[in-house]
Amino acid sequence: MQHSVSIRDLSLNFGHVKVLEHLNLDIAEGEFIVLLGPSGCGKSTLLNCIAGLLDVSDGQIFINGKNVTWEEPKDRGIGMVFQSYALYPQMTVERNLSFGLRVARMQKDEVERRVKRASEILQIEPLLKRKPVELSGGQRQRVAIGRALVRDVDVFLFDEPLSNLDAKLRSDLRVEIKRLHQRLKNTMIYVTHDQIEALTLADRIAIMKNGVIQQLADPHTIYNKPTNLYVAGFIGSPSMNFLEGELQGGTEPVFRANDGTVIPVKTYAFETAPNGGAVKGVLGVRPEHIAVGEAAKAMPFATEVEVEIVEPMGSDTLAYTKLAGQTLTFRADSEINLRDGQTVLVGFDPGRGSIFDTATSNRI
Amino acid sequence: MSQTATISSAGPTASQDARVEARGPRPTPFFTPRKIVIYSILFFACLYFLFPLYVMITTSFKTMPEIRWGNIFAPPIEPTGEAWIKAWTSACTGLTCQGLSPGFWNSVKITVPSTLVSIFIAAVNGYALINWRFKGSEIFFTILIFGSFIPYQVMLYPLVMITRELGIFGSLWAVILVHTIFGMPILTLLFRNYFASLPVELFKAARVDGAGFWRIFFEIMLPMSLPIFVVAMILQITGIWNDFLFGVVFAGTQNYPMTVQLNNIVNSVQGSPEYNVNMAATILTGLVPLIVYFVSGRLFVRGIAAGAVKG
Q1: What pTM does this model have?
Q2: A351 phi, psi to nearest 5 deg
Q3: Does domain B101-308 have CATH number 3.30.70.3270?
Q4: Which uninterrupted H or E stretch holds B267?
Q5: Cβ <8 Å between A82 and B1
Q6: Are A205 and A255 in the same domain?
Q7: What's the complex ipTM?
Q8: Do residues B226 and B303 touch, judged by C-beta distance below 8 A?
Q9: Distance in angstroms (rounded) separating the CA atoms of residues A41 and A20
Q10: How far apart are CA A291 and CA A232, in angstroms?
C-alpha cells in the first residue's frame, strides 16, 4: 500500500543544534496522525518541514509517492492551519478563502464553487463578507481550515490549531475536526501539546522528545503499553505512579520495591522474558488502575496505605498516599468516602501496569 | 469558556462605569500647585521656541525702512507681502535672480523620487531580510547597519568619483542616487523591525497558498504596513528636503535644491542684507517639512490606531 506521507531519515540542524535527528515516519492514506510532545521537542518543526516552509538538512519527504523534499509548499498538495489562524487581515473571509485559488489563476466560477462548498461544510456562509477582525476565535479558525479546504489538498497540516481558543470552544472544534476528517477522509497531521486532543483525535500518536519520535502507536497502546519511561510519564493525568526497585526473573517473577515490599508480577506480559538475575527497574501503575477497599482484595497485589491528601474532583477523587516509601496517587470513585489520615486497602494488577529497565528506561 | 465569557461580558459594564464616573465633578480643584508649575514651564518653553518664529514672520511682512528703525519685536506698521513675492520670484541666488521658485521645484524633483525609491528598496530589503533569510543575510544586515555609523564626509569623495564614472555627476540623478544610498541603512532597519513584528505565520500561510516573493510583498505585507510607510516618508521627506551637503556637491549649479539657494540669498554679499526677504525665504524653505509633519502626523496616529486592532 502506498503511503500518503513518508519521511525518510529526516534531519534538521539549526547551526549546531540538532532539532530533528534521523526521523522516519510513514503515514497511511486517510490516517489522522498526531504529533505530541512538550514545547521544543521538534513537532512543529517537523510539520514545517513537511509543509516545505523549512529546508531540511538531510533526508527525504515523500507525499503520495512523490519526492517533495525540495518542492515549493504549493506543489506539495498540502494545506496548513496555524495556531494564530494567520488570516490575511485586510481581506474579507471570502477573499481569504480564495487567495490561494486566485494565486493559482483558477477560473472564476470554479473559485466561487469551491468557496461555496467549503463555507457550507464549515458553516461560515454568513461570514463571507466580513473581515477577520470581526470574527470570534472559533470562526477565525474555521476560516483558516476553510482556506486549506478550498485548495482540495491531499494532506491537512494542523499546527496547534486549538491552542488559542478557550476550553469550551476547544472541545467543540475538536469534535468538528474529527467530523471533518470522517467526512473528507484526508490524511491529517496534527501537532499539539494537549494529550486530550491527541488521544481523542488520533488514529496514531507520535510522541516526540528532543527531535526523536519516542513511540508511534494508536492511542490505546500509547496509554496502556508506553514504550519507555518518558512516554509513560507524559501521557495520563495525573501521571503514572512509578515505584523504583528490582525485578526478579524466573518462573515466579516478582518486583521488589526499594524498601523490600514484594509485588508478584506473574500476570505481566513481558516483551522480553527476564532472565534469572535481578534487574534494576521501575514499576509503573496508572492512578486509575488502582482499586480501593473491597475491590482491592481481588487484585494480585494489595496492601494497606495511609491517605495523606484527598482531592475531590467531582466525578472522582484523587488521593495521595505512600507505598513502599514512594508517592502513590490513586483515583477513586467519588462515592467512596476518603478522609485525610485514613488507612485504606489498595490493590492493583501489575499486568495492567508497565515495567521499565532503569538502565535503558525502556519497557521490559 | 466560562472564564472568557465572564470577562467579555464584564467588559462593557466596566467601561460604562468608568464613563459614568468621568461625567461627575472632579474631586480635585483645577489650580493645584503641581499644575501651576507644569503649565508655567510649558508656557515659557512655548514662548522661548515661538518667539524667533514670531520675529521671522513679523519681519518678513515689514518694509526695509521699517526694519532699519531697529524695533524687531514690533508688529509691522504697514504689512506688505512684497518680501515674500521677491523671495519667491526675483531674489538673487548666485548668478540668476529668479528667487527661490526654481530651487523649490529642484527640491521637489530631488525629494519625490529619492523618497519613493529609497523607501521601496528599503521595504523590499527589510522584507527579504526577515522573511526570505539567505545564507549570510545576518552579516549583510550587520554591514548595512554599520554603514549608518560612517560619517557622510568620509564617503563624499568616493561618491563623487563613482557618480563621475557613471556620468551622472552634476545632475539630479546623482543627488537622487546619493540620497537613496544614505537612506538605506536606517530605512532598512526600520522596515526589517516592522516586518519582524508581523506574525510570521501570515507569511507561511501565504507561501502555502502558493504566493511568491512579490505577491506576498504587495498583497500581504504592504497592506499591513501603512504606519511604517508614513514614518519612513516623514523621515525621508524632511531629511532630503533639509539636506544641503549632497545638494551643493552633486546636483550641479542648474539643479541646486531650495536649501542651497536659500543660503545663496541669505549669504549674498552684494548690497545691504534684505532681512525681510531672508526671513520670507527661510520660512518658505521650512514650510514643506512643517506641512509634512502636520499632515502626516495625523495620518501616522490613525495608521497606528488601525494597526493596533489584532487581525
Answers
A1: 0.80
A2: -65, -25
A3: no
A4: none
A5: no
A6: no
A7: 0.86
A8: yes
A9: 9
A10: 20
